[in-house]
Automatic annotation (TrEMBL):
Record-annotated ACT domain positions: 1-52
SUPFAM superfamilies (UniProt xref): ACT-like (SSF55021)
Matches recorded under PROSITE patterns: ACT (PS51671)
UniProt-recorded name of the protein: ACT domain-containing protein
InterPro entries: ACT-like_dom_sf (IPR045865), ACT_dom (IPR002912)
């Protein structure tokens, strides 16, 4: 995991949305399993994107 952020939900008081950034390949079985577990345990799950890492 690279970063985790929490933001207040726009729909309900005292409810928060978590944004998680992590490094991994979407085709890796460990990554797939981790995302499946997160999705099962979350009320709401949305994959915002998968991007190639750019070296600076």
């Amino acid at each position: 995991m690279v970063k985790i952020e929490s933001r207040p939900s726009k729909s309900r008081l005292w409810e928060y949305v978590l944004y998680v950034d992590f490094e991994g390949n979407i085709n890796d079985e460990n990554v797939k399993n981790a995302m499946n577990i997160i999705e099962e345990k979350s009320k709401y799950f949305k994959l915002l994107g998968c991007y190639k890492k750019k070296e600076i």
